[in-house]
Amino acid sequence: MVSAGPDPATEQRGARGSSEEKGRLVFTSVLMIEKALTSADVEFVTTLHGDEPVSFHVLLQPRGEQADRLLRAIDDVALGELDEAVREHETPEGEEAQSMGERALEVSLQALRTTGDTAEGRLVEDHPLDALKAVVAEVEADEVIVLTDPHYVEEFFHRDWASRARHKVGVPVLKLFSHSKA
Questions:
Q1: 109/55 Cα distance (integer angstroms)
Q2: Which domains, from first to last, does the chain contain?
Q3: How would you write the chain as a 3-class SS string?
Q4: FRET partner for 175 with CA separation of 20 to 30 A, picked from 32, 95, 147, 154?
Q5: In angstroms, what CA-CA distances link 56 with 1, 46, 163?
Q6: Residue 15: what pLDDT?
Q7: What local confidence, expressed as pLDDT, does residue 42 receive?
Q8: C-beta separation of 167 from 130 below 8 A
Q9: Which residues have a Cβ under 8 Å from the Cβ of 74 and sit 6 or more positions away?
Q10: Computed from CA positions of residues 24, 30, 32, 36, in that sequence, does the dihedral angle turn out positive or negative?
Q11: Residues 105 and 77 sit within 8 Å (Cβ to Cβ)
């Protein structure tokens, strides 16, 4: 077969992680989250690329494992959620957070799959950016989407996942805020 030149879709997006599924290019996206996706979040991430099929690789690290209580309480105060700041000690951690994380991951994967996209995922217990970098390389991802609640203190000091990932993963990193609390 003689080719007339580079495929315009591949040239436009880059040939990094795109694969073919049923004769169509599939966009490969690693989605990093800290809680179950809401229906608004699912709609948002699944429509980013129009009608193009997407293969999602979801990494979930429960919030209880991600940051210490003081930073979370400061974020709550910055958001004007004083009641949340007072109840910060009630945030599940350890095994309880992992159990909730497993349920949140399964709910999120199922929601992504109902849109017709493919989705697989795993919990991240330690070193989320190392896990992110490994998954991006493993699946030859086209992009990373970090979808979390705002973390103003970490963002101000560029210590949030998206800011740090931009220097580690070698693909575009899109930072989005969750639409509502799950």
A1: 11
A2: 17-67+93-177 (3.40.50.620)
A3: CCCCCCCHHHHHHCCCCCEEECCEEEEEEEEEECCCCCHHHHHHHHCCCCCCCEEEEEEECCHHHHCCHHHHHHHHHHCCCHHHHHCHHHCCCHHHHHHHHHHHHHHHHHHHHCCCCEEEEEECCCCHHHHHHHHHHHHCCCEEEEEECCCHHHHHCCCCHHHHHCCCCCCCEEEEECCCCC
A4: 95
A5: 32, 9, 21
A6: 46
A7: 96
A8: no
A9: 85, 152, 153
A10: positive
A11: no
Sign of CA dihedral 162, 165, 167, 169: negative
Supply the pLDDT for residue 101: 86
Q: What is the pLDDT of residue 104?
A: 93
Alpha carbon distance 121, 105 (integer Å): 7
Angstrom distance (rounded) from CA 1 to CA 91 = 59
Q: By the 8 A CB rule, do 171 and 160 touch?
A: no
* CA distance linking residue 128 with residue 134, whole number of Å: 10
9: Cα within 13 Å, side-chain hemisphere: 12
Query: How crowded is residue 148: how many other Cβ atoms within 10 Å of its Cβ?
Result: 21
Q: Average pLDDT per run of 10 along the chain, which is 182 residues long?
A: 38 50 78 93 94 95 58 60 52 60 94 96 90 96 91 62 86 86 49
Q: What is this structure's pTM?
A: 0.72
